[in-house]
Amino acid sequence: MSHEADAVGAGGSVTACRDDAMLRIVLNRPDRRNSLTPKMIETLVDTLTSAAADDSLRAVLITAAGRDFCAGADWLAANDRERPRTGDLVRRIPHGAHRVIELVAGIHLPVVCAVRGWAVGFGCNLALAADFTVAAADAVFWEPFVERGFSPDSGSTWLLPRLAGVARARRMLLLGEKVGATDAAEWGMIHQAVEPPVLDDACEKLLERLAGGPTVAIGLAKQALAFGQGAGLAESLTQELFSLELACRTGDFKEGLEAFRQRRAPRFRGR
């Protein structure tokens, strides 16, 4: 992932560039509030899949050009052809939007999202799936699926109840209520809401902290957290044991112990 990936379709692109051990992904279709065309979603899938297999990466940042984060999937761009045959969505979406959410949530790297303006539908769920979403205080999160006549997708019915609770999930998914970033942070939907001028700085500090951490242990902890959402205590304890066995075999584990003995800050290498 040392190169820049750029997929252009219907006036939009997704770019990914390497910055040392960090991967910076930018949604770049500001004239359409970064609504995602099928080609842009395909590029996200390819980029995140490559990142998952890159042992030299230690953190991922997803941000967007312009005033808004993402207005969701562009349904007009996705349906600008003749009427598809029955079952088209069932065949297509699992390999597109749904796969992006799975990759963001499941990749063994910490993922940070920086959100300005609107985060709508798939864009909202992309931010919810990230490990840490930092949003400008005037940003807005919105799940307008039902208002537009179709049911929620891209993980919203799984993510929202777990992050914000069932009652608040109903308000967003069934009533289409918009939620400001400050409330989203208080509800536990996102990591933090900050004043707009300091958003970039807040994300950079968080990204640097994560990229300087024990990458394998962070990935295993992320996996164990996700596993625990659908498991009982006994199963979660077993998962933790397997994760611990792997973490103890890393160079970063040895460095952590040595730093503790020497009473200094550890210098993790992500190995």
Q: Work out the helicity level.
A: 40-55%
Q: Can you count the beta strands?
A: 10
Mean pLDDT: 90
Percent of residues in beta strands: 15-25%
How are strands sequenced across the largest beta sheet?
1-2-3-4-5-7-10
Structural class: alpha/beta
Rounded Rg: 19 Å
Query: Low-confidence runs (pLDDT<50, min 5 residues)?
Result: 1-10
Helix count equals 12
- Main sheet overview: 7 strands, mixed
How many angstroms separate the termini?
Answer: 18 Å
Shape field: globular
Give the helices and strands as they follow along the chain: EEEHEHHHEEHEEHHEHEHHHH
Commentary on this structure:
- With 271 residues, the chain is an alpha/beta fold.
- The chain contains twelve helices and ten strands.
- It has helices at residues 38-52, 75-78, 88-92, 97-106, 122-129, 156-164, 166-173, 181-187, 199-211, 215-228, 233-247, 251-262; strands at residues 5-9, 12-19, 22-28, 59-64, 111-115, 118-120, 132-136, 140-142, 179-180, 192-194.
- The strands form two sheets. A seven-stranded mixed β-sheet has the order 1-2-3-4-5-7-10, with helices on both faces. A three-stranded mixed β-sheet has the order 6-8-9.
- A hairpin with a 2-residue loop joins β2 (12-19) and β3 (22-28).
- α6 (156-164) packs across α7 (166-173).
- The radius of gyration is 19 Å and the shape is globular.
- Residues 1-10 have low confidence and may be disordered.
